[in-house]
Amino acid sequence: MNTATLPAAALSAAPTLEALYPLLARLSIGAGWDKPEPAMWPQPKQNFLPFHWRYADAAAAFEAASRLVSTEQAERRNLILVNPVAGNIYSTLRTLVVAYQSILPNETARSHRHSPNALRLVLDAGGGAYTTVNAKRIPMHAGDVVLTPSGCWHGHGHDGDRPATWIDYLDVPLVQLLEPIFFEHHPAGIEQPDRVTPDSPFIFSFAATEAGLAAAPVDAQYGRQIELGKPALKTVGLHMMQLAPGMQTAPVRTTANNAYTVVRGEGRTIVDGESFEWRRGDVIAAPAWRPHHHVAGSDAILFRVTDTPVMEALGLLRSA
Ligand code: GTQ
Ligand code: FE2
To answer: Which of 183, 205, 227 finishes a domain?
Structure first.
């Protein structure tokens, strides 16, 4: 039953608030002055937890998973970075999910399309790994970033001879919250490419990133920073940051959610007082309103993935 009524007299004659509340509850109405919890608070709650995932752990897990699950069985051989906040079973941050993904030589990961936006950062690819986006085959090399915007067909394959690994970033948690999730398998199983395009609007090569960083000014909060796309996707902003050895960045506290991935070097990131020592391929979650900064141990490049475009478009971007 999804509707309810009560005789008007029973409601209107309720002698006390204690008598009124259960009558309202039967109508699925709550007394706004007696909410179980406040609906608003002075500033963001910091629900999601700072966390650090190590590439070494994912690589070891992939050795097992490569033996135990094929891309025939799995839509994707991916390892999801589930934020350890109580009750969460999927999201890395409120609006974003991050996952390591591996593909073995001669495997294909079938093509599909979905309303959530996705992108990948290539970690290790010895040549031969590729993503096909809307029938264009894009070769994947370490440090490259490849976009698969909402609604684009995409699948992955590998003609090389060593396993390839990358990291996926998707706005699935945001689209789930907003409801319009759509997902569809490609009718051909694996979409056949009609051409190979090393340069496409969907790819930011590592060579271009390095050249851009070398020419970028040094910012106190972000080091040398470039933005990939403006923004790369409607809901996701992408930046590459280069930190000189020993550099300590000025703290950032923003309503946007940030995921940092180590492209190069070693150092640590301090999120809300917790220090995480990182190396190449590691991921650090810096959730909304958690103050954080970085200390580079060596020359370091961090890939910063954020929901800033969402906050900005909605007028909700603030920093302190
Ligand atoms: O490669 O298409 O990690 O659709 C999660 C969902 C990867 C992908 C993920 C996906 C993909
Ligand atoms: Fe996908």
So the answer is: 205
